[in-house]
Design brief:
This protein is mainly alpha-helical. The chain is built from three helices and three strands; from the N terminus they run H-E-E-H-H-E. The protein has a three-stranded antiparallel β-sheet with strand order 1-2-3.
Length: about 130
Amino acid sequence: MSQGIPGIARNSCPLCGELTGVPAAQLFRPGRTRQTRFFRCSACNGRIRVAPSTAIAATFGGLLGLVPGLYALCRLPVWVDRIGWHPHPNTFGDFSLRFLLPMGTIFTGYVLAAICLGRLMLQLEPA
């Protein structure tokens, strides 16, 4: 493997040693089927994939990223009581404040934390 050689970057292809772009979707959602598990090296066009240890670390990072979203979800009634509702409430405003905002925060926290920890623990291997 090229990751064991000093001076070789973590995002280098294990086949040719050149730097390759790792799709972000491979980090926060590792492929579950045989067709989406690998991607192609930009230099040698070889099939490479993210190592299972990287997928586990990215999933764990995503679970850690859920914490701020769940905190915001639990604190939302306190914030609304302190600030007060909009002077002209409507159905979509209530729906967006009670559902879309917390779910967007939770989803964004999962994806960002999974990508960050996945990049930190990145290892590639031939497919």
